[in-house]
Amino acid sequence: MGFIPYIIYPPANQTYDGLIKAVATSVCDVAIGDITVTAKRREIVDFSTSIFDNSVRIIVRQTKTIDVDLLSYLKPFSLKLWSILLICIVYAAVLLCVLEGQNNEALQNRSIISSGAMSMWYSIGTIMGYGADFHVRTAPGRLLTIGLYLLSLVLVATYTANLASDLTISKSKDTISGIDDIKNGKIPFSRIGILIESAEEDYYLREISGGVRNYYPLKTQNELFSSLLNNIIDASILDISAIEYYTNNIYCNLTLAGKDFAPSSYGIVYPKQWLYGKDLDVTILSLRESGVLDDLKRKWFDKNVCQDSSSSYVSTSINMEQMSGLFVTFGLISILSIVLFIWKKRFVIKDCPTRSVH
Fold it and tell me: Chief location of this protein (predicted)?
């Protein structure tokens, strides 16, 4: 806009409402920063068009918890995959009875239930990689065993790797899950830190406490973060742009909880009826339309030095779709073993009339 700026940096303990009053009393011409546009502030100053869309979010400490889960050893595979595996075991056991029943001493002279149990034992032992205390005797049985070994090789390795991954991942559990937990008093109000003379304070007094100042007062953002880390407070609310940057790049032991709320925007503060207000709005709109403001946001705010400091745990269970090719291969091998079994029976049947003639 052609101005020659004279920039004054506010002191560290300067509040946001203090900046507003400085503009309103002509101590400074404009105030630029993460200043939220509110109706109360518009009564004494004017704001430019939005320079950044904003909202509020809760910030808490990361807490490490160990959840007791008696079925945690089943988590490496999805329920659907476990079901398909059980079907394959039963299918292989039935097929083994048919292929080996008349030619394997371990299955001969037994009841159907006993033969089925032995076949099931063989199928389970082979898939688990342990093996069984008897061996197959026929070519179709050996071909079926190859299919079981293939299942064992892939499934055991995948299960072991995925279980180890699940056991070593530290799962974070937030103290609260959203703004409703604060409203319902899930944590003491005296353990909630609020920046004084800020838009967050106005929101807290208006929407949560009904005008009662029952929170823990904080003067600066640095005091907010140190109070969280030193266990003086359990939670606070702050603009999403600020806490996303700090939790992603500086305070890796802090994280975000719940969803965004109280949408608002940032604007440049200037006095009422300022002569250059319209020109400033046009310039800001031009910067937004050309993508300059978005480029600045990506350059300075879309960084993440901390390793997923605000991410939640994602299940690593292997699903059926990822293993579908393995089971299709096993199915094809089992079909080949059936074909081989029928082929051998065909020759046995053809040889029977020849032997009876001799």
Answer: membrane
